[in-house]
C-alpha cells in the first residue's frame, strides 16, 4: 500500500505580501497623517510585531507600565507573551484611549472592537497590495539585514516558536530587555528615511 504525504507537506508555502523594510518610514509617515483609529492600530501593530488578532483583541487591562501581556488564550502558540512597548506605542495607546475612554479595548469605536479586516482595508485604501501579517516579515527582514540583534531575540519579539525542539527546551527565557532594545532600534529606523548602510567598494 502506498502512503501519500499529507497535503500540508507537499503544498507550496504561501507567503504574506509584505512591505519592503526600506519603505517603512514612508508608510508610517502616511499613517501618522491620518486621523482615525485604524491607522493608530496599524502603526501599533507594526511597532510591536503583533498579529492582527492580538492587536484588535487587546484590552487595556493587559498593559502595565510599558509591558503589554497577551494571555495564552489569544496567542497562536497558546503561551503568554510579554511585549515591550516603546514610547511611540505608549503614545498611540493614550490617543486611542482619548477617542473611546470607556472602552475595555485598546482600539475600538463606541466600545466595540474593530473587524479583523479594518487594518487590511486601510492598506488597500492607501494603495498598497500588502497584508498586515506581512509586516512581521518586514520586521524580521530588517532585523536580519540591518542590525546585529540575534535571531533568537528577533524570533522572541514576534512570538515565533522555535522549530528545533532541543533549542526550544533550553531557551525558555523571554529575553525581554534585549527585545526592548531591538524594538527601540526598530522605532528609530521607522522614524527616519532609509539610507543604504552597505559600504560601496571603490573599483580599482
Could you characterize what this model shows?
With 204 residues, the chain is mainly α. The protein has a single domain, classed as Intergrase catalytic core (hpI Integrase, Chain A), CATH 1.10.443.10. The protein has 10 helices and 5 strands. Strands 1-2-3 form a 3-stranded antiparallel sheet. Strands 4-5 form a two-stranded antiparallel ribbon. A hairpin with a 2-residue loop joins β1 and β2 (67-70). α3 (37-48) runs antiparallel to α5 and α8 crosses α10. The N and C termini lie far apart (65 Å).
What is the total domain count?
A: 1
CATH architecture: Orthogonal Bundle
In the CATH hierarchy, the third-tier topology is known as: hpI Integrase, Chain A
- Helix content bin: 40-55%
Oligomeric state as shown: single chain
> What percentage of the residues does DSSP assign to strands (E)?
5-15%
Q: Order of SSEs, N→C?
A: HHHHEEEHEEHHHHH
Low-confidence segments, given as residue ranges, are 1-13, 165-171, 198-204
* CATH top-level class: Mainly Alpha
Q: CATH superfamily membership, which one?
A: Intergrase catalytic core
Largest sheet: 3 strands, antiparallel
Given the structure, what is the number of helices?
10
Mean pLDDT: 87
Look at the helices and sheets and give the structural class. mainly alpha
Could you give the order of strands across the largest sheet? Answer: 1-2-3
Q: List how many beta strands DSSP finds.
A: 5
User: What is the CA-CA span between the terminal residues?
Assistant: 65 Å
What Rg do the Cα atoms give?
18 Å
The global form is globular
Amino acid at each position: 500500500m502506498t502512503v501519500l504525504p499529507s497535503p500540508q507537506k507537499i503544498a507550496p508555502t504561501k507567503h504574506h505580501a509584505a512591505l519592503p523594510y526600506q519603505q517603512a518610514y514612508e508608510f508610517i509617515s502616511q499613517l501618522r497623517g491620518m486621523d482615525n483609529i485604524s491607522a493608530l492600530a496599524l502603526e501599533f501593530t507594526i511597532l510591536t510585531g503583533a498579529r492582527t488578532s492580538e492587536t484588535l483583541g487587546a484590552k487595556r487591562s493587559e498593559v502595565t507600565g510599558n509591558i503589554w501581556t497577551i494571555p495564552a488564550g489569544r496567542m497562536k502558540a497558546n503561551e503568554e507573551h510579554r511585549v515591550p512597548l516603546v514610547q511611540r506605542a505608549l503614545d498611540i495607546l493614550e490617543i486611542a484611549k482619548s477617542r473611546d475612554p470607556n472602552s475595555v479595548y485598546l482600539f475600538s469605536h463606541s466600545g466595540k472592537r474593530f473587524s479583523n479586516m479594518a487594518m487590511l482595508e486601510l492598506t488597500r485604501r492607501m494603495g498598497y497590495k500588502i497584508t498586515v501579517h506581512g509586516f512581521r516579515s518586514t520586521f524580521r527582514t530588517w532585523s536580519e539585514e540591518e542590525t546585529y540583534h540575534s535571531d533568537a531575540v528577533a524570533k522572541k519579539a514576534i512570538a515565533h516558536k522555535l522549530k528545533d525542539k532541543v533549542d526550544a527546551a533550553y531557551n525558555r527565557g523571554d529575553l525581554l530587555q534585549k527585545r526592548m532594545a531591538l524594538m527601540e532600534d526598530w522605532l528609530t529606523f521607522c522614524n527616519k528615511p532609509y539610507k543604504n548602510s552597505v559600504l560601496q567598494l571603490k573599483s580599482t
